[in-house]
Design goal:
The protein is of the alpha+beta class and 200 residues long. Helix content is 26%, strand content 28%. The protein is built from 5 helices and 10 strands, in the order H-E-H-E-E-E-E-H-E-E-E-E-E-H-H.
């Protein structure tokens, strides 16, 4: 299978839910699958799977979703993201977590309470969103020196790395061309003038 063919294949997502999730699905009359409000949504909802309400304190709490997922293609991964309504209404934020192709355990949500008080979540509440992300192939090469970005070498917008390299290169050039004696003391203005002359 080449990359051009792979781009047009739909990702097959297989999932199962726990017995507790099945029970809550009946009690609350809620679909416990990977559910969207509309077909155009970019993410799916994850619900709290618990027999009782859960109190979220001022710490990171691990919450169960009752869902196990299997992906058909190893170039994808699962991403758990915060649910915006929960942030706005209750001040609770799910941490961004990635699960790779080989993960087969229950999807967990790690919840942070940004309030100064405890917040209660009920079984079936939406606690996070889930999406599937394609992993882009990366060719990593180690080099002795990286090249500066085009147009940045003589501007004030250099990153500190490139700026540091520029200064070192300039100082080396000045030492070679002006035969600076190590015993010679230059004022700050004289050094700036030498650097400016070399950059013209």
């Amino acid at each position: 299978m080449d990359s051009s063919t792979r781009n047009y294949e739909a990702l097959k997502v297989t999932y199962e839910i726990t017995d507790l999730a099945k029970s809550l699905e009946k009690q609350l009359n809620i679909s416990w699958g990977l559910e969207k409000i509309t077909p155009f949504d970019a993410c799916f909802y994850l619900r709290l799977t618990s027999e009782n309400p859960v109190t979220i304190k001022n710490s990171i709490e691990t919450l169960n979703t009752g869902i196990y997922i299997e992906l058909s293609d190893p170039v994808y991964e699962i991403e758990v993201r915060p649910y915006s309504n929960l942030i706005r209404e209750k001040g609770l934020v799910a941490l961004n977590i990635f699960y790779d192709f080989y993960y087969r355990n229950e999807i967990k949500v790690f919840m942070v309470n940004h309030n100064l008080y405890e917040v209660v979540l009920n079984p079936g509440d939406i606690i996070a969103t889930l999406s599937f992300k394609r992993i882009v192939p990366i060719d990593i090469v180690r080099a002795s020196q990286i090249n500066p970005a085009d147009g940045l070498i003589k501007t004030k917008d250099n990153t500190w790395v490139q700026e540091e390299k520029r200064q070192r290169a300039t100082e080396n050039t000045i030492n070679q061309n002006y035969n600076i004696n190590n015993d010679t003391i230059y004022t700050e203005n004289q050094i700036k003038k030498l650097i400016e002359d070399r950059l013209k």
